[in-house]
Amino acid sequence: MKFSVASSVLICAVTGTYGFVTPFGVKTSNNFNRIGSTLEAVPKSESYSVTILEGDGIGPEISTATKKVLAALTKRCGFELELKPALIGGCAIDAANSPFPDESLAQCRSSDSVLLACIGGPKWDGNPRELRPESGLLKMRKEMGLFANLRPAKVMSQLVDASTLKREIVEGVDVMVVRELTGDVYFGAPKGIDTDPVTGERVGYNNMIYSESEVRRIAKVAGDVAMKRGKKLCSVDKANVLDVSQLWRDVTIDVMEKDYPEVDLSHMYVDNAAMQLIRWPKQFDTIVTGNIFGDILSDEASMLVGSLGMLPSASIGLEGPGVFEPIHGSAPDIAGQDVANPLAMILSAAMMLRYDLARPEEADILERAVEAVLDKGIRTADIKFDGDGCRLVGCVEMGDTVAEIVATV
Ligand code: IPM
Ligand code: MG
């Protein structure tokens, strides 16, 4: 995992200049393995520089397991991955009084990609908002332009019985939630808590707002994703009530009609979508939705799979490095006990290899290794249940086993 400064500069230069930006996205001069034609990735290389943000809670444990697995992968496949640590979340607040210090941002920006574990914990929950770990995450997304968040929920056959839903409902489920990540009530102004001058009562408010260009660019990502999957896209909104959702719907229809005529587009109100995801999830292929609806629906979709501990995600923009992270939180209640499941972070590393580093075959190896570990009946506590005949292991052993298998699959 060593990597010279000179080649690091070269790769970053390539990352920054490859392709040209149009109002409708980035056209690359090569067809890389990101999502489709509109997004840029780093060209395939013999060495990469990746920032690793270990974060809080179980973050360091699952990062250690993931690093072992990546070391086994680079050894087997003959390329180099320099993993450079940086701070985000509670640990960054403690060390630098900022949940995402500018040095971390600069380092992430100049890396080929970013791998993030998880952030947060009760220690920082009472802090003012700007000194909460979550604010660091939001700053990172905004500053790095990571407007598209891909959250796959694919039920692995080995884990069907780990879901709280019936086997016939979840078996074969394969849904991709494309969540807009830098707009909506998360970032809209005005926002705040004020005192009403007339009643003297406090009033809290946020603004659910989307511009046409924001909707257009996420719709294009969703179109690209849907084209690579089942060519079926469900756009989720609340257009029966919200003006912002009406714009969302109108623009999505326009983008799909013009650029993705082959994609079968449908629309669903968010309350119905929440219900349908549980009632009959196999009706969905790709879902596109705004930031807050996507936050909620992607957590819901994750439970189809049985455990949050299995789900990776990718946050990407039009150019520059993406951020790849498990969708689970920092689980402070189990931190330091060697019981966390590192598989979501390992699968996030696979997404990084596929979408950012132009290494789809290596991504396949990691995914196959995870499947093979499950086939062997090895389980962390979150995916183990009584009478399944499987062997319970901790985070370290799970990581070691995946690393061993990576050398052979
Ligand atoms: C997520 C998380 C974050 C979000 C929090 C931690 C700010 O729930 O990534 O889904 O709301 O986006
Ligand atoms: Mg969430």
In short:
The chain is α/β, with parallel strands linked by helices. Helices cover 41% and strands 19% of the residues. The protein contains 14 helices and 16 strands.
- Summarize model confidence as the mean pLDDT: 90
Instruction: Give the uncertain stretches in residue-range form.
Output: 1-34
Order of helices and strands: HEEEHEHHEHHEHEEEHEHEHEHEEHHEEH
Strand content: 15-25%
Q: Structural class of the secondary elements?
A: alpha/beta
Which superfamily, in CATH terms, is the homologous superfamily of the largest domain? Isopropylmalate Dehydrogenase
H/I helix tally: 14
Cα radius of gyration in angstroms? 21 Å
Strand order of the largest sheet: 4-3-5-14-13-6-7-12-10-11
- Say how many strands there are: 16
Q: Which distinct ligands sit in these coordinates? A: 3-isopropylmalic acid, magnesium ion
Q: What's the oligomerization state?
A: single chain
**CATH fold-level topology of the largest domain:** Isopropylmalate Dehydrogenase
Name of the top-level CATH class of the largest domain: Alpha Beta
Most strands sheet: 10 strands, mixed
Subunit structure: Homodimer.
GO biological process, one term: L-leucine biosynthetic process
Subcellular location: Cytoplasm
Pfam families: Iso_dh
